[in-house]
Amino acid sequence: MRCEVIAIGTELLLGQSVDTNSSWIGEQLALAGIDCHYQAKVGDNIQRIVDLLTLALDRSDAVILCGGLGPTQDDVTREAIAQYMGATLKRDPALVDRIRERFAARAREMPDNNLRQADVPVGASSIAEMPGTAPGLICPIGGRVIYAVPGVPSEMRTMLEGSILPDLKRRAGSEAVIRSRTLRTWGQSESGLAEMLAGRIEALDRTGNPTLAFLASGIEGLKVRITAKGADSAQVDALIAEEERLVRDVLGDIVFGVDEQTMESVVLDLLRQRRLTLAVAESLTGGLLASRLTDIAGASDVFRGALVAYASDVKHQHLGVAEGPVVSEAAAAQMARGVRDLLGADVALATTGVAGPSPQEDQPVGTVYVAMALGAQVETRLLHLGGNRRQIRQFTVIGLLNLLRRRLLAA
Amino acid sequence: MRCEVIAIGTELLLGQSVDTNSSWIGEQLALAGIDCHYQAKVGDNIQRIVDLLTLALDRSDAVILCGGLGPTQDDVTREAIAQYMGATLKRDPALVDRIRERFAARAREMPDNNLRQADVPVGASSIAEMPGTAPGLICPIGGRVIYAVPGVPSEMRTMLEGSILPDLKRRAGSEAVIRSRTLRTWGQSESGLAEMLAGRIEALDRTGNPTLAFLASGIEGLKVRITAKGADSAQVDALIAEEERLVRDVLGDIVFGVDEQTMESVVLDLLRQRRLTLAVAESLTGGLLASRLTDIAGASDVFRGALVAYASDVKHQHLGVAEGPVVSEAAAAQMARGVRDLLGADVALATTGVAGPSPQEDQPVGTVYVAMALGAQVETRLLHLGGNRRQIRQFTVIGLLNLLRRRLLAA
Question: Which residues in B188-224 are b (16+ Cβ under 10 Å) and which e?
Answer without folding.
Answer: beeeebeebbeebeeebeeeeebbbebbeeeeebbbb
